DNA sequence: CGAGTGATTGAGGCAAGTCAAATGTGGTGG
DNA sequence: CCACCACATTTGACTTGCCTCAATCACTCG
């Protein structure tokens, strides 16, 4: 099913180690660090806004890297409550599992292109090449680090502290020329921070009123005072 | 400093692969799975109740396995708010890092004995033995899985759902003859679940009043109806 | 330029937090 | 062995930060 849909829509297949698209940041090309060593076949593939990439508990057949666009990884409760565990931005690897299935679902936030390799081929490479095995471990470990930081946020920070942390994270990860263009809506931010979209909006309005940030459209944000934002972040 | 204190208090050094203490569950002996392969030296060591094992951001010199007792891993905010990321019970490995430092601090909840090996020797073994490298990865991946589940709990579950989840987790991990002896106090439980100790206590009282659990002392709990607890867990 | 979705703002409610007091309990020394 | 003490837990009364529900506003994109 997934394979069919991939084959039907694949737009480009290449031997990795070839040139990397402009959206992939060179110093953080985690995928290349693996595929370059072992000559794995990487395929490019695109998803539309809100399209599912894989579901929770689905077999983990592929490992992905965002080329352009943005992805949300999340879990759902039976009544629809959602917790987004991470946002994946250009250059990020996602969907890497040590076990057989995906622990979270993944969806494109906006139209998104990914590069992907078969999980089985990575596993095989890791069995031969210790460098690859080490890389898989460190990628999982940095996801764990993020999750540990996020548990602190979700369990113990106030709404304003959460929003401040979020803004500083996004500023670090996607600011260009001091401005960030958020790909996600207020509901996504709320579901990432364990808040409602209204609470996120109120916190942003308050930061705007205090001159800590500026808007040019709801999703174009300029941080005017990172120091004060850090102070609000506990 | 750490090394000194370790040397001063070490009570037993052995080549691993020897017999395992009775408190370590045989089917989940993650440590043995590693050390058995490469003949690493494991040392036993004990900590008193509330003693720090390592601090946040401290160099990760050792990897630990609980032999007996219980350990909490946590992060602190500057004003003292605490988030416990995990409890480590007999058989569990903790303190395993891919990077140079510990991401969370660790403390003994009660008097605790651990087995430990040098991180550097594990790293070395992983460079030679692909089985070891794979094991390190899967151990980190299962910590990540727990953290992802816990983010959902912290971000989206109600107080009663959190406590129900906690009880089912502890029942699974440390119930003997249908009864569990919790090593941690209500404050630890609250800091694990993102609640206050009072809220934890009220939820437990309510479950007791509904006949879902029974007490013999505040920390000796017997689950009388796991199905109803599952229903409360969303 | 208008429709539709996303964002903001307001008013009121409630789940969980805070503060405080009473009760229970395990550990220890007389 | 038991009485006491220190601390853990429970329970109560009240507060509050965030949520819910609802209405308006403002982009974005046909």
Automatic annotation (TrEMBL), chains A, B:
<keyword id="KW-0805">Transcription regulation</keyword>
<dbReference type="InterPro" id="IPR036388">
    <property type="entry name" value="WH-like_DNA-bd_sf"/>
</dbReference>
<dbReference type="InterPro" id="IPR018490">
    <property type="entry name" value="cNMP-bd_dom_sf"/>
</dbReference>
<keyword id="KW-0804">Transcription</keyword>
<dbReference type="Pfam" id="PF13545">
    <property type="entry name" value="HTH_Crp_2"/>
</dbReference>
<dbReference type="InterPro" id="IPR000595">
    <property type="entry name" value="cNMP-bd_dom"/>
</dbReference>
<dbReference type="GO" id="GO:0003677">
    <property type="term" value="F:DNA binding"/>
</dbReference>
<keyword id="KW-0238">DNA-binding</keyword>
<dbReference type="GO" id="GO:0005829">
    <property type="term" value="C:cytosol"/>
</dbReference>
<protein>
    <submittedName>
        <fullName>Nitrogen fixation protein FixK</fullName>
    </submittedName>
</protein>
<dbReference type="InterPro" id="IPR012318">
    <property type="entry name" value="HTH_CRP"/>
</dbReference>
<keyword id="KW-0535">Nitrogen fixation</keyword>
<dbReference type="InterPro" id="IPR050397">
    <property type="entry name" value="Env_Response_Regulators"/>
</dbReference>
<feature type="domain" description="HTH crp-type">
    <location>
        <begin position="157"/>
        <end position="227"/>
    </location>
</feature>
<dbReference type="Pfam" id="PF00027">
    <property type="entry name" value="cNMP_binding"/>
</dbReference>
<dbReference type="InterPro" id="IPR036390">
    <property type="entry name" value="WH_DNA-bd_sf"/>
</dbReference>
<dbReference type="GO" id="GO:0003700">
    <property type="term" value="F:DNA-binding transcription factor activity"/>
</dbReference>
<dbReference type="InterPro" id="IPR014710">
    <property type="entry name" value="RmlC-like_jellyroll"/>
</dbReference>
